[in-house]
């Protein structure tokens, strides 16, 4: 072991529900199919939590045929992804990311639970009924994503009253830095009030005083290196969720051209778009976003009514987000939308998940 390895104290294990996670790092769910079985199992094999993003999983699967059975195909594709990741990481901790804003939210949760997901992370709306949909396997840890103490408090009270259970952890996502859909209005973005520096200590204090520290707080957004993790833990978080850091890994489930777009990006290539889901989203500046900003037409045909509320379907505005994210994942850089956190543009080369974990744990690059 080198001197630098010796100089960093070990990261504390993270306890969520009945699971003890050796390294307190959850890999953030990344749809569409950016985090599927390969990335999730690689992270789980390193002692973190691997997360499969369930949104529109079928689009790049053998199960989906245009115009047919999108929802059934999503279920079959999710079962495949869970099985493959469990085979590749039999003793790892693997969960799913299920978004409330998606029409098949309930089916994705039920399928995850029935097929052995250890954890469900759920955001893009408050997952008020998550315990009901996950009831068949109480050991599955339920982790809602919130953007404020108010939301955490409301959810915990509601779950306790209706389902006699508490969230197994609360995940705070910082809209100032996180990738993908942001749980906040555009005019509230970049406000200190919603930053992890402000909200994580509030959540930690709330968990301590109201629930005897029973609900660990996880923070997401802008975590890149060991310093960021140590800072998050010093704020009172018990663990972190990281997504953008894993984009340029060999194990990430997207096309090589998708990963190269991050390596080629400049520091200024991060933009905010208005998603048809009615939320702002953080994305990479590409041909797609440039066309969008100029008012041009981009993938705009609704093919599966996948979102609960969607301006593409209802007002023929905007674009089909599932199609746009799917195209990017397949390597269509001209017509695809690439989500990113502010850190996505820091990638300079490809890495293995194992090397990232080694760096985070020992400080060795
Ligand atoms: C490419 C990409 C896709 C994402 N897709 C989802 C998703 O499907 N569901 C979700 O809840 N969060 C999604 N996110 C958010 C991440 O899970 C994560 O919480 C956030 O990006 C953390 O910030 P970081 O990227 O700075 O680590 C996505 C993020 C990225 C970069």
Please characterize this protein's 3D structure:
Helix 6 links the parallel strand 7 and strand 8. The chain has 13 helices and 13 strands. The chain is about 35% helix and about 15% strand. The protein has 2 domains: about 270 residues, TIM Barrel (Alpha-Beta Barrel), CATH 3.20.20; about 90 residues, no CATH class. The N terminus is likely disordered. It is an alpha/beta fold. An 8-stranded parallel sheet has the order 3-11-10-8-7-6-5-4. The chain has a 3-stranded antiparallel sheet with strand order 9-13-12, with no helix packed on it. Strands 1-2 form a two-stranded antiparallel ribbon. Bound molecules: flavin mononucleotide (FMN). The site of flavin mononucleotide has 29 residues, from strand 5 and strand 11.
Topology:
Blueprint: H1 3-7, E1 14-16, E2 19-21, E3 25-27, H2 37-45, E4 49-53, H3 70-88, E5 93-99, H4 105-114, E6 119-123, H5 130-133, E7 141-146, H6 149-163, E8 170-173, E9 180-181, H7 196-211, E10 217-220, H8 226-234, E11 239-242, H9 256-264, E12 270-274, E13 280-284, H10 287-293, H11 311-315, H12 321-329, H13 353-362
Parallel strand pairs: 3-11, 4-5, 5-6, 6-7, 7-8, 8-10, 10-11
Antiparallel strand pairs: 1-2, 9-13, 12-13
The structure holds flavin mononucleotide.
């Amino acid at each position: 072991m080198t001197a630098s390895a010796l100089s960093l104290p070990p990261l504390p294990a993270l306890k969520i529900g009945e699971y003890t996670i050796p390294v307190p790092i959850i890999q953030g769910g990344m749809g569409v199919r950016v985090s599927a079985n390969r990335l999730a199992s690689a992270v789980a094999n390193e002692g973190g939590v691997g997360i499969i993003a369930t949104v529109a999983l079928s689009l790049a699967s053998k199960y989906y045929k245009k115009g047919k059975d999108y929802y059934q195909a999503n279920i079959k594709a999710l079962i495949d992804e869970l099985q493959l990741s469990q085979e590749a990481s039999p003793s790892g901790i693997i969960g799913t990311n299920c978004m409330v804003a998606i029409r098949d939210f309930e089916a994705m949760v039920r399928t995850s639970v029935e097929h052995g997901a250890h954890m469900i992370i759920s955001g893009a709306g408050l997952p008020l009924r998550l315990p009901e949909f996950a009831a068949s396997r109480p050991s599955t840890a339920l982790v809602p994503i919130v953007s404020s103490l108010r939301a955490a408090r409301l959810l915990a009270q509601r779950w306790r009253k209706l389902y006699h259970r508490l969230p197994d952890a609360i995940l705070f996502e910082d809209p100032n830095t996180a990738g993908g859909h942001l749980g906040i209005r555009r005019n509230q973005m970049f406000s200190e009030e919603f930053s992890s520096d402000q909200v994580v200590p509030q959540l930690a204090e709330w968990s301590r005083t109201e629930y005897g520290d029973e609900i660990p707080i996880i923070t997401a957004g802008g975590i890149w290196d060991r310093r960021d993790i140590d800072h998050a833990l010093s704020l009172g978080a018990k663990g972190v969720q990281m997504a953008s850091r894993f984009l340029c890994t060999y194990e990430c489930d997207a096309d090589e051209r998708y990963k190269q777009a991050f390596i080629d990006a400049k520091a200024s290539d991060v933009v905010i778009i208005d998603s048809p889901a009615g939320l702002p989203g953080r994305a990479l500046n590409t041909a797609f976003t440039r066309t969008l900003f100029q008012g041009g037409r981009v993938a705009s045909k609704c093919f599966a009514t996948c979102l609960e509320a969607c301006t593409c379907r209802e007002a023929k505005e905007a674009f089909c987000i599932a199609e746009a994210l799917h195209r990017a994942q397949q390597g269509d850089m001209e017509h695809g939308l690439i989500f990113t956190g502010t850190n996505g543009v820091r990638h300079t080369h490809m890495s293995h998940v194992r090397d990232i974990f080694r760096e985070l744990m020992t400080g060795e690059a």
